[in-house]
Structures are given as structure tokens and as C-alpha cells.
Design a protein that fits this description.
This protein is α/β, with parallel strands linked by helices. It has 11 helices and 8 strands.
């Protein structure tokens, strides 16, 4: 009778909290795990051979990007570098959650997933696009666990709205005076799958906030850092219907962000800044070997 009661209790705990998976059980490659009763799609490589205290590369995707967008980069990373990535709530094969996917919640949830899987720090955080602000938020909340950071064409959330508007005004010779790109994107992403739409709403609110606290995205601890920016001209998406100014001129204006990003690392002795005029926004997809090389260069600095 006692065995039966214990079995019932274990079954109840399974349904209430989800199945606990540790790195000892985690298989390499893409798979679905359970976290707080929700499906979470993850991908990993080299965890079983990771030494205690050795950094692990954590990949944080851009808005709505599926886990497969990292495949080519993961393949290019040296086998000696352990790596982990996942799909956020409501993205790809990961279940939606009730909580709003703001940067603080997203960072804390990733931290808890890593904890459940017994993937201990130190972490080298790698963020693409919207993933940049997310890894900044992670470093703000868990500064002692982050040993390095790599930003792949990071979204400049703090000043994006103002920068876009200024670039639009200049590109249109002052004829367009509203942030039509932001509004067109808002209309477009509201029709996207729910998980992507919810993330976009968070981004839209941050970008258009007049009292955004910079410290939310400003880690206090200096760690080895690499900033990679794209400079390739990419035409405006046809389905956004952006008209009224030269989109190429608009992108040229946005290149001024490079000055801000260089200031971000000006006092960091272990920093790398690279701008690639031959690569677009998805740099890690276009040239995974180059991005992997930068991560591999940051890795020994973070030890």
C-alpha cells in the first residue's frame, strides 16, 4: 500500500510540475523538454564533455526566429565549445505561457530552464537582433553568471524609435514626419502567430516608451564582449508597403548607430567591434563560419 501511495504522489508531481530533465538525461541535438508543465524546444552540443567551471555558449534568437536558424552556426563552432539554445515561449514548438514576454521575465525564465537542466554558469551570452536586449537583461539580473557577451546585429531598443524617425525624416527630405516603419511593422506583426505577436507588442511598447529606463539594458559588470553589425543594403519588405522615401538612404542614416555601439565598449580592454558591409541582418545564417570564429575568440577571454 505504501508503494502505491508513493507512486501516486510521484505521478501527481509529474503532472503538476512537469518532468525534470538534467544534463545527464539531455540528449544532444534538437528535442522537446518539459518545463513547468510546458513544452520547450531546445538544442545542445558538447554538454556531456563540459568540465566544471568551463563557460558554455547560450544562444538567444531574434524576434520569432526558430531554433533551426542557429544550426549552421552551431555546426561551425569548435567541438570543444559547449553550446545551448532554445525557443522562447510561444515560438516554434515551445508552448505559450500566461506571462507577458518582457525582457525581465524572458531572462528569468531562461535562467530557470538552465537551472532545471543543471547547466551551470559561467555563460557566454550570444544574442541576435531582439536577442541583444534580452541577453543584456540577463546580464543585469545575473551579472556574476555571465562571463562574456556577443551581439549579432543587436536591436537598439533604447533609442530605436527616435533613430528611426530621424532617419526617415532625412531620407524623405522632411516630407515624412512620422515613424511609418514602426507603424507598418506593428500592423504586420499583429497578424503574426500569437507568440510572435506577443513578443512584438513588448518590443513596440519599449521602442515607443518615453520613459524607458536605460539601466534595464545596461549591465554593470564588464566582461569580454564582441559587437557585430551588418552594413549590407537590404530593400524594404514588399509586404510592408513602405513608400515615401528612399529606403537605401534610410539604412545609410541608421549606420550612425555604430558610433553608439563603439562607445558602449570603449573602456573594455577585451572587446571586439566589427561591421560587415557585405552581410545583412541574419549574419550568423549568411556567414556562420565568421560568427563562429568571433565566438571562439571571445571564449578563451571568458575563462
Amino acid at each position: 500500500m505504501k508503494m502505491h501511495q508513493n507512486g501516486t504522489l510521484l505521478l501527481l508531481l509529474f503532472f503538476l510540475f512537469g518532468y525534470f530533465i538534467s544534463t545527464a538525461q539531455l540528449q544532444e541535438g534538437i528535442q522537446i523538454i518539459q518545463f513547468n508543465g510546458k513544452n520547450v524546444q531546445v538544442n545542445s552540443k558538447g554538454l556531456n564533455n563540459r568540465s566544471e567551471g568551463e563557460p558554455i555558449v547560450i544562444l538567444e534568437s531574434g524576434l520569432g526566429s526558430p531554433i533551426q536558424s542557429w544550426n549552421a552556426l552551431i555546426q561551425q563552432l569548435p567541438d570543444t565549445l559547449p553550446v545551448f539554445t532554445y525557443e522562447r515561449a510561444g515560438i516554434g514548438q515551445s508552448d505559450q505561457t500566461e506571462e507577458a514576454p518582457n525582457p525581465e521575465f524572458t531572462a528569468e525564465r531562461l535562467h530557470d530552464i538552465l537551472g532545471q537542466l543543471e547547466i551551470m554558469p559561467p555563460y557566454i551570452m550570444v544574442g541576435h537582433s531582439w536577442g541583444g536586449p534580452l541577453i543584456n537583461s540577463f546580464a543585469v539580473q545575473f551579472p556574476d553568471e555571465v562571463a562574456g557577451m556577443v551581439f549579432i546585429d543587436e536591436s537598439d531598443i533604447v533609442n530605436m524609435g527616435a533613430n528611426f524617425l530621424e532617419a526617415i525624416k532625412r531620407a524623405s527630405d522632411g516630407k515624412v514626419t512620422t515613424n511609418v516603419i514602426s507603424e507598418k511593422m506593428n500592423t504586420y506583426f499583429q497578424m503574426a502567430p500569437p507568440g510572435i505577436a506577443r513578443e512584438w507588442s513588448e518590443i513596440y511598447n519599449l521602442v515607443n516608451s518615453e520613459d524607458l529606463e536605460i539601466k534595464r539594458f545596461t549591465p554593470t559588470k564588464t566582461v569580454p564582449t564582441a559587437i557585430l553589425l551588418s552594413g549590407k543594403y537590404e530593400p524594404a519588405p514588399v509586404d510592408l508597403g513602405i513608400t515615401g522615401f528612399d529606403f537605401k538612404d534610410f539604412q545609410e542614416m541608421l549606420k550612425l548607430r555604430a558610433e553608439k555601439f563603439t562607445k558602449k565598449i570603449s573602456d573594455n580592454p577585451n572587446a571586439i567591434f566589427l561591421q560587415y558591409n557585405n552581410l545583412g541582418h541574419y549574419m550568423h545564417v549568411e556567414n556562420p563560419e565568421m560568427v563562429a570564429g568571433v565566438i571562439a575568440e571571445i571564449y578563451p577571454m571568458a575563462k
